[in-house]
Amino acid sequence: MAYTYKLNTALAFIILVSACNQNPTDTDMEETMAETTGITLEKKQFDSSKFKLGKVEEQDFTKIINATGSLDIPEKNTAAVSTLMSGTIGSINIIEGEWVRKGQQLFTITNPEIINMQEEFLIADSQLEYLQEEYNRQIDLQRENLSTKKDLLKAKSELHTTQAKHGALRKKLNLYGINTNQLTINSLVSTLKVAAPISGYITHIDAIQGMFLEPNETALKIANASHIHLELSVLEKDALLLKKEQPLTFTLQGNPDKKYHATIHLINRSINEKHMITIHCHIEDDSNQSLVPGMYANAEILIDEYRAKALPEDALVKMNEVYYGMMLRSQDDAGMIFDKKSIEVGAQQNGFIEIKEALDPEIEFLINGAYYLIQ
């Protein structure tokens, strides 16, 4: 199609020159071309090539700030799973990418110390009743002066020591997931069950079966993507233009044609070493399954809206950083004459280009096909 347009244009120009010079000489040709600053199209050429005329018109534009960033998950929606006691990892019941619910067993860990702690708890539990009775007896004997104060203090010390040990062991075992209220000599456990602290997807597993895990060493990570937000970086010079609840649109690197909508929720007022500030944005319909944490995003933050004179994008051609349009000089039944005109432009949005200079509103431009004439 492009080849056809260029050919038709060339033919039209040749027809024009021939019509203006019935018996042209080289001198006549040079004079004619010097005087003719425009390009002429015959009416049939204009119609057959589907060219179209149009005028400058009012269009809506927006002032925007460009920003880049990525999708992320709030820290409260992520968890690193570890254990309070060292031990050997037993069965692992999950795989990466699997959804787990809060409280679901993830893996087990074995340590002989678990059995010793349960044993010590049961011994302390059985001693408490005796020590409490002995302490009460010493109080009665002391009242009747039948025992020494030293015996009373000893009974009191033994009771309080055992109570403290019993209470500490109860809390530790409860932290390890062992119900001390139901613990008996016949219900001792040798493994601990490690449960999911939150619901979410398993994003990473470091642990393997048979591995020795130290206390607080990360075994795996869980992320709940039910609330994904957008973290953007904005230039320092644009910081004062930002405010909470400002709307913005963004696209993802893997799908630049799909636009998502968000609003600014938090603005970090500190400037980093790159002279940028970060902003936290809430995404409309963040439950969209196509959104994945870590995706790179390009965003446009809406600062202002205004109306301005504009031409369609197809009406202007950029050459050497200058925009040109084909302005209609005159027309009659035979054809049309266009002048190539440089035009000062502004924003380019939604298929239109803002015209920054004053133009006669009645002037017509070639709004479809200018590319094939401006060469």
Can you give a write-up of this model?
The chain is an alpha+beta fold and 375 residues long. It has 3 domains: 2-60 and 308-372, conserved putative lor/sdh protein from methanococcus maripaludis s2 fold; 64-75 and 225-306, Elongation Factor Tu (Ef-tu), domain 3, CATH 2.40.30; 77-223, OB fold (Dihydrolipoamide Acetyltransferase, E2P) (Beta Barrel), CATH 2.40.50.100. Helix content is 25%, strand content 39%. It has 5 helices and 22 strands. The protein has helices at 2-20, 26-35, 43-48, 112-143, 149-175, and strands at residues 38-42, 52-55, 57-72, 78-81, 87-92, 99-100, 105-110, 191-195, 200-205, 212-213, 220-223, 229-235, 247-252, 255-267, 276-283, 296-312, 316-319, 322-331, 335-343, 345-349, 352-355, 364-368. A 6-stranded antiparallel barrel has the order 3-12-15-14-13-16. A 4-stranded antiparallel beta sheet has the order 1-19-18-17. It has a 4-stranded antiparallel beta sheet with strand order 4-11-9-6, with no helix packed on it. The longest helix is centred in the middle third of the chain and has 32 residues, at 112-143. The chain is rod-shaped. Mean pLDDT is 85; it is low at 1-36. Belongs to the membrane fusion protein (MFP) (TC 8.A.1) family. This is Multidrug resistance protein MdtA-like barrel-sandwich hybrid domain-containing protein. Residues 77-219 form the Multidrug resistance protein MdtA-like barrel-sandwich hybrid domain.
